[in-house]
Automatic annotation (TrEMBL):
Domain of life where this protein originates: Bacteria
Descriptive protein name: Serine/threonine protein kinase
Top-level taxonomy: Bacteria, Bacillati, Actinomycetota, Actinomycetes, Pseudonocardiales
Amino acid sequence: MHSASGERGERVSFRHLVLVVAVALGVAACGTQPENPPAPSGPQANVGPLHLPLPPGATYTAHSPDGLLDGCIAEGTVVCEARILDLRTADPAAPINPPSTKRPFGWYTGTDTPTCITPASPPGNAAEATGSKLLDAGFAPIGPKKAEYARWQVTCENSAQNNQVRMWWLPTSRILIVQYGSFPGWDAKLDTLLAGATFS
């Protein structure tokens, strides 16, 4: 037969044990590091602070040997559907035209004449552009950010290469995205990809 004092001692000991376990679990929980977010399941273009998901099988070329495909997104047989450039890394000695809706060829940062890049006329095999007409301008999302947005109708020396070009420009991040040979199916796909973009 246990004495009353013995029973009180056992109850105290049990309460003490529960308290110790609770504290230990609390310390363990506080020391647990949060899990890292899951890595993207598909290809991704990482350009400066921008992380853009790409369609399955697509690739991004940051630098190419001759520079023609720098920044290009390629998919299937199309070697440059769009271009993503971090203008913070541009050669400071090279002349550059900042992207703007207020000048002809406002998506083009060179000081010469752009060429008419399309799925059928890749960089290096495209005719020179002869003119551009601004069709739409405003703002459009890139992930959580709002970019300056524009669409141009472009005319070319080879009229078979006439096409539309779309542009997104983040002046603070200095990220430029240009879509060549715009058409509704690719427009919708790129808009979806841009909506899923993140920044670090």
